[in-house]
């Protein structure tokens, strides 16, 4: 791994470690999610409202998502679901409400404080079939072909090697299993000053890649039936962008028609490894 990738992972771990110790209200009342600083991006700009969903637990909701991946995940009773970047357990508990007692939910996160918070939440709820494991999405602590469904919420944009991440997702999915991931992507190009800002990376902005490139990475990993289920334009407040770029650069950014989007993508692993949907292997 390059030093740059290591530094990015260290930054994300530090920032999300701080956020894990705060409430959703504190995250939303500050503009950066890590105190009252107003010097960096707002981690809650992208978040969706979970409160009406079965299985929702407010203690697990830190307002850090950019979609509701379980909405399009076609999770069934008895399924094994893996949530990547599970945080305090929000999507895991929603998935658990669907899989029931017969199913299993595994959350993977590489931030110790998030894992501790998620385990505490699961213990309070008395869940025996929801577990949380420390691990890196680029090298998951899971065997092959164990998951019926993989979900992830505003996390894969934080992974330096996205090809490796989707390769790992493909590996842990059962044949004919599928993924449903919500993430941040862009159309056009962000200014270099934003791309190079560590806080904007941790805030899910500068780590975002081109939408078409994102979809190609999923297809290149072997997935089929790749489809964007939800696509929402995100409006980053000017006062946040102006922390990194000048007024003139902001004007140029607007004129360039660069767009920042939250998308939810569905994709399936074929029944066999050759890329076909059935019977050819």
Protein traits:
281 residues; alpha/beta; Rossmann fold; 7-stranded mixed beta sheet; 10 helices; 7 strands; disordered C terminus
Structure description:
This protein has a single domain, classed as Rossmann fold (3-Layer(aba) Sandwich). It contains ten helices and seven strands. The radius of gyration is 18 Å and the shape is globular. Strand 1, helix 3 and strand 2 form a beta-alpha-beta unit. With 281 residues, the protein is α/β, with parallel strands linked by helices. A seven-stranded mixed beta sheet has the order 3-2-1-4-5-7-6, sandwiched between helices. The C terminus is likely disordered. Helix 1 runs parallel beside helix 4.
Determine the fraction of residues in helical runs and give it as a percent range.
Answer: 25-40%
> How many DSSP helices?
10
CATH H level, superfamily name: Vaccinia Virus protein VP39
Q: Mind describing the biggest β-sheet?
A: 7 strands, mixed
CATH topology: Rossmann fold
Describe, in short, the structure shown:
With 281 residues, the chain is of the alpha/beta class.
Topology of helices and strands:
Blueprint: H1 3-20, H2 24-29, E1 80-84, H3 90-99, E2 104-109, H4 112-125, E3 130-134, E4 147-153, H5 162-172, E5 173-187, H6 192-195, H7 198-202, H8 211-220, E6 224-234, H9 238-241, H10 247-255, E7 259-268
Parallel strand pairs: 1-2, 1-4, 2-3, 4-5
Antiparallel strand pairs: 5-7, 6-7
């Amino acid at each position: 791994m390059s030093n740059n990738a290591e530094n990015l992972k260290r930054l994300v771990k530090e920032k999300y470690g701080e956020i894990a110790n705060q409430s959703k209200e504190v995250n939303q009342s500050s503009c950066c999610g890590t105190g009252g600083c107003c010097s960096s991006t707002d981690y809650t700009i992208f978040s969706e409202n979970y409160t009406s969903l079965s299985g929702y637990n407010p203690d697990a909701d830190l307002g850090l998502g950019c979609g509701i991946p379980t909405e399009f995940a076609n999770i069934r009773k008895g399924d094994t679901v893996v949530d990547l970047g599970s945080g305090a357990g929000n999507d895991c508990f929603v998935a658990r409400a669907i899989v029931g007692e017969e199913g299993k939910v595994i959350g993977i996160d590489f931030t110790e404080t998030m894992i501790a918070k998620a385990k505490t939440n699961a213990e309070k709820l008395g869940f025996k079939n929801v577990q949380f494991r420390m691990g890196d999405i680029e090298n998951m602590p899971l065997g092959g072909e164990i998951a019926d469904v993989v979900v992830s919420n505003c996390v894969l944009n934080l992974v330096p090697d996205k090809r490796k991440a989707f390769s790992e997702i493909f590996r842990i999915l059962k044949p004919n299993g599928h993924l449903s991931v919500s993430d941040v992507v862009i159309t056009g190009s962000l200014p270099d000053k934003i791309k190079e800002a560590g806080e904007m990376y941790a805030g899910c902005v500068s780590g975002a890649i081109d939408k078409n490139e994102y979809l190609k990475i999923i297809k290149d990993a072997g997935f089929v039936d790749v489809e964007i289920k939800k696509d929402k334009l995100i409006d980053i407040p000017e006062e946040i962008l102006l922390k990194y770029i000048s007024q003139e650069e902001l004007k140029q950014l607007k004129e360039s028609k660069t767009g920042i989007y939250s998308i939810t993508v569905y994709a399936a692993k074929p029944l066999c490894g050759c890329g076909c949907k059935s019977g050819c292997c």
